[in-house]
Amino acid sequence: MEKFVIEWTNPDFESFLASNWDSVQANGYNQAEREMTRYGESFYYGKAHAILFCVMDIMQTILSLGVFWLLLFDNKEKVVRLVELITVLGYIAVYILWENKTQYMFPAYFLMIPMASKGWKLACHTIAGKIRLCRDL
Q1: How far apart are CA 16 and CA 8, in angstroms?
Q2: What is residue 30's three-state secondary structure?
Q3: Residue 136 class from Cβ within 10 Å (0-12 exposed, 13-18 middle, 19+ buried)?
Q4: What is the pLDDT of residues 54-86, one digit of tens each?
Q5: pLDDT band for position 99 (50/70/90)?
Q6: Average pLDDT, the chain
Q7: Is the Cα torsion angle 8, 84, 107, 98 positive or negative in sign?
Q8: How far apart are CA 39 and CA 108, in angstroms?
Q9: Which of 16, 41, 57, 137 is the most buried (most CB within 10 A)?
Q10: What is the rounded CA–CA span in Å between residue 108 and residue 8?
Q11: pLDDT value at 47 more than 90
Q12: 30: left (phi over 0), alpha (psi -120 to 50) or beta
């Protein structure tokens, strides 16, 4: 379960880890031997990193909530929804059983963007309908 949570909740898909200045690359090249600018340092370790990570976390949460809403409440396009669901569940199954790097989850999130868009559209229509119903009472 811990592997699943780490893979699906890391909003930067390990991009900071994979490009970290202090790590030695696979070819043996160590970027730490080069001087890092103050902007680079802020981006990897400072305030810019904290802000960027927070923004990415919010974006990933919005995306996930849209997909969740769609899967729970969209009953109109059952075949299309089933294909989308099988795709996402396929990604989940493959990465639980086989891979363990968050950076490989990135393509699944691209596939989830249209699902999230439809989910948020459905949520807005549902909420607008409830508001209209309350006004009519």
Answers
A1: 16
A2: strand
A3: exposed
A4: 999 999 999 989 988 888 888 776 767 777 778
A5: low
A6: 79
A7: positive
A8: 31
A9: 16
A10: 10
A11: yes
A12: beta
Tokens of 19: 């490009």
pLDDT of 7 higher than 90: no
Q: Is the dihedral of CA 122, 124, 127, 128 positive or negative?
A: negative
Which residues fall within 8 angstroms of residue 81, CB to CB, at 6 or more apart?
70, 71, 74
Q: Which residue has the tokens 């909740």?
A: 9
Whole-angstrom distance, CA of residue 26 vs CA of residue 46? 26
Q: Tell me 29's DSSP state.
A: -
For residues 10 and 53, the answer to whether their CB atoms sit within 8 Å is: no
What is the token pair recorded at 70?
């769609």
Task: Retrieve residue 39's tokens.
Answer: 């902007």
